Amino acid sequence: MKAIRIHSHGEADVLQRDSLNTPKPEPGHVTVKIEAAGINFIDIYQRKGLYKVPLPYTLGLEGAGTVSQVGIGVEEFQVGDRVAYSSIPGSYAEYVHAPTDKIVKIPDGVNTKTAAAAMLQGMTAHFLVNDTYHLKAGDTCLIHAVAGGVGLLLTQMAKAKGATVIGTTSSEEKAQLAKNAGADHVILYTETDFEEGVKTIMNGKGLQVVYDSVGLTTFEKSLNVLAMRGMMVLYGQSSGPVEPFSPQTLNAKGSLYLTRPSLFHYIASREEFVKRASDVFSMIQGKKLNVHVGETFPLDAAGEAQSRLESRTTSGKILLLP
Questions:
Q1: In terms of CATH architecture, what is 2-119+267-321?
Q2: Judging by beta carbons within 10 Å of its beta carbon (0-12, 13-18, 19+), is residue 81 exposed, middle or buried?
Q3: Which is it for strands 293-298 and 317-321: parallel, antiparallel or unpaired?
Q4: Domain 137-260: which topology?
Q5: pTM over 0.85
Q6: 107 Cβ partners below 8 Å, 6+ apart?
Q7: What is the pLDDT of residues 95-134, one digit of tens each?
Q8: Rounded to an integer, what distance in angstroms lies between the CA atom of residue 141 and that of residue 157?
Q9: Pair 123, 280: CB distance under 8 Å
Q10: Where are the alpha helices (DSSP H) in the chain?
């Protein structure tokens, strides 16, 4: 099979196509023929060495496809089942070796590409509004990169909770996508300082929560727009890692809360993983969640796909189609 791997860390040009043996499933595993794989910032962090992985390494942590082989002892899944997964390395490939505790069946009414696009980002949005900060009616949240893959899903889930959504993005086109998803206010950070924009919208009052996947360039000002005892949810670093700061800053700005969550800790058990994925799929089935696939690329163009995501000019989800 073809697989896109890194043998060293660096820019997108370190990605190379290798020929590997198609995996045969071990006991308790299946082999999945991948129809679509998601591109995520974590792939870029691994490529650059910000997140350590053993080399050589096949990138990609989520995808969807069809079970092609079943290992000994597997009863829940059969050859031909449509399945989706997250947190399984090796998705920039034609096949993946998948432990059954990390895959779920794709229900009727959800196509395979949509399932691939919804796994990591959909479950991330789900835990952000339900668990990291329990968003509720009357709350106002700020969502950075509101037209990105997580941002659009997060907006829809926040509105379903009855919250007011303020988003930041770079262009009128992206702003319209966010508004279509339900955002109440969208600030173009290319034209307006978002801190001032939020304070104007809020008449000087603070927000209950900020969802920040950008990091370095937004972190300090995000703290400045929170209400007393508000929560800063830093779940990414697309502009770079946040610089060290004194915890006393959180006290001075109103006894703020700061968390740096990861999806992997919110799907640590099989039960939680299945429940979270099922909730996301149910929202898609019920037309309560629209998963926007912005661009698709063939497997050999994985470097180009990553560069597009890294440029922060994309909207929605980017998929590789092996």
A1: Alpha-Beta Complex (3.90)
A2: middle
A3: parallel
A4: Rossmann fold (3.40.50)
A5: yes
A6: 281, 285
A7: 999 999 999 999 999 999 999 999 999 999 999 999 999 9
A8: 12
A9: yes
A10: 41-48, 112-127, 149-160, 172-180, 194-201, 219-224, 248-252, 263-266, 270-285, 302-310
